[in-house]
Structure prediction request, 217 residues.
Amino acid sequence: MIPIIFMSHADPIGSGHVANLARPGGNITGLSIMMTETNVKGLELFKEAVPGLSRVAVVWDPATPSHGPGLKAVEAAGPALGLRIQPVAVRSATEFDGAFSAIVRERAGGVLVLSTPLFIAGAKPLAELALTHKLPSLFGPRHHVEAGGLMSYSPDRADLWRRGAIYVDKILKGAKPADLPVQQPTKFELVVNLKTAKALGLTIPQSFLLRADHVIQ
Prediction:
């Protein structure tokens, strides 16, 4: 079998692609972005940045395998944070407008967009829709914030790719994927867009900003 190395898998166990992280088995291994766990941590940070949040819409794609476990984890974490979670399924870019209309109709106070290629490609329109509807927004990859989103929290993907190159080298030298543990991220990025916060009329606590890795003025 041809060895497969993933560089930024959202949830390799939840998606059923590996048996466990220590010994993945089969012909596939690599690096996980731990999206399920990272979503929960991001939700905690979202509540810290916007303390008045009580209802958060979660935009997810049913066709993305990692989104099912990710959504369940966020729903389970919500009550302890004093948050009601409103799942909003989106299957294509043509549904963006309708999704935000539903979010506003249900009176959500903020929106968490789970990471997937569909939403990454739609970073700009998603950020603009959130701003148009006066909704604080939380994303994964930082380029969503560079496109106008309020904040993002995710592993440092460049670091994962560098570490992934080491695995490629090992396999080319004869190592088997089944014997290489799935690595987890060790570096994370918290990014905040103060320009967006100002447009939303939000004041992000200074103590929170001091913890951010990047602040866009």
Notes: The chain has two domains: 4-32+156-179, 35-154.
